[in-house]
Amino acid sequence: MTQAILTLNAGSSSLKFQAFAVDDLSVLLAGKVTGIGGDAKLALSVPEDAAPAQPMGGDHHAALAAVLDCIDRHDDDWQVTAIAHRIVHGGTSFAAPVAIDDDVMAALAELVPLAPLHQPHNLEAVEASRALLPDALDIACFDTGFHAGQDPLFTTMPLPQRLRDEGFRRYGFHGISYEWIARRLRADHPGIARGRVVAAHLGNGASMCAMVGGQSVDTSMGMTALDGLPMGTRCGAIDPGAVTMLMRRGMDAEAIDHVLYHESGLKGLSGLTNDVAALIQSNDRQAQFALDVFALRIAQFAGRMAVSMGGLDALVFTAGIGENAASVRDAVVARLSFLPAFQVLVIPTDEERMMAIHVKELMAGGGACAD
Ligand code: ADP
Question: Where in this chain does the entry annotate a coiled-coil region (predicted)?
Answer without folding.
Answer: none
